[in-house]
Amino acid sequence: MITTTHYLIVSLVLFTLGVVGMVVRRNFIVVLMCVELILNAANINFIAFSRQLGGLTGQVFAVFVITIAAAEAAIGLGIIVALMRLKQTVNLDRVSEMEG
Amino acid sequence: MDWLLLHFAAIVFYCLAAVAVAGAIGVIAFRSPVHAALSLLCTFVAVAGLFVLAHAEFLAAVQIFVYAGGIMVLFLFVIMLVNVRTIPREPQYLARLVPAAVIAALVLAACLGAGLWAAVHGAPASASGLTQIAGQTTGNTEAVGWSLYRDYLLPFEVVSVVLLVAMIGAIVMGRREPGRERA
């Protein structure tokens, strides 16, 4: 029997892997992929609770999360293209002008 | 055979969860961004399978369309555009492993601890007192659409504005500025 807890554990693992990837990787493109992983983990949570509570609100909000993920991917990839044009790198450790 | 039929959903769930987690590990571990993107694709498809198991068929279809069809293509397109081969290979593509390990351990411990605490002390979760939306007799897609366009019309419109702004922003950032051509 698959319970909500099973879904939550999968979501937790995906979320943690996404956070670790954001910290560990230096490639901007891969960091964006890790953000997508985190948003997917949030979606799994929404679906799991929607299943448990028997309503559809979770699914509707998951649609919104997917929309925001698409917007975020478009913006992020636009930043990557601009960054590539400006500095010819996608390495985040090379882009540290705003560190102060 | 009976055992297999009895636990079919659980077996499928564990297979999909394993694929999703393996894909997520691949995103972090593969050095090449293309391999990471394909690994992420595995995760997306597996998560769509998890949605089907949770009776969210519409979400599964949207997941495949938007993530696997749209966002993945966008990622691969940008990887092609950026042309990874021209970038000098970093001798070390992972960094800050120790803080990452600490963060992962803290997040996992906090979430599992909170879950265990709630399981021991908290009230058992129940679905009582929650209204059932008209979705029992209709299909999932119809029910989600009904809920989306009736109960959540304003957020829906706001999100469309967000998408529009993101589109304009991406166009502006990706545009080559006149007079500042790359050498």
The outline of chain B comes out as: extended
**What CATH first level of one domain in chain A would be assigned?**
Mainly Alpha
Number of helical stretches of at least 4 residues of chain A: 3
What would the principal axes of the Cα set say about the shape of chain A?
elongated
Give the structural class of chain A.
mainly alpha
**Beta-strand content of chain B:** under 5%
Oligomer: heterodimer
Largest sheet of chain A, in brief, is:
none
Radius of gyration of chain A: 17 Å
Q: Major β-sheet of chain B, in short?
A: none
* Most residues in contact, chain pair and counts: A-B, 71 and 85 residues
Low-confidence stretches of chain B: 126-135
- Write down the CATH class of one domain in chain B: Mainly Alpha
Distance between the termini of chain B: 67 Å
List keywords for this structure.
heterodimer; A: 100 residues; mainly alpha; Helix Hairpins; 78% helix; elongated; B: 183 residues; Four Helix Bundle (Hemerythrin (Met), subunit A); 7 helices; 0% strand; extended
Q: Can you walk through the features of this model?
A:
Chain A has three helices and no strands. In chain A, helix 1 (4-24) runs antiparallel to helix 2 (28-53) and helix 2 packs antiparallel against helix 3. Helix content of chain A is 78%, strand content 0%. Chain A has a domain at 26-92: Helix Hairpins (Orthogonal Bundle), CATH 1.10.287. With 100 residues, chain A is mainly alpha-helical. Chain A has helices at residues 4-24, 28-53, 57-87. Among the domains of chain B are: 8-89, Four Helix Bundle (Hemerythrin (Met), subunit A) (Up-down Bundle); 139-176. Chain B has seven helices and no strands. Chain B has helices spanning 2-6, 8-29, 33-53, 57-82, 97-121, 140-150, 153-174. At the A-B interface, helix 1, helix 2 and helix 3 of A face helix 2, helix 3, helix 4, helix 5 and helix 6 of B.
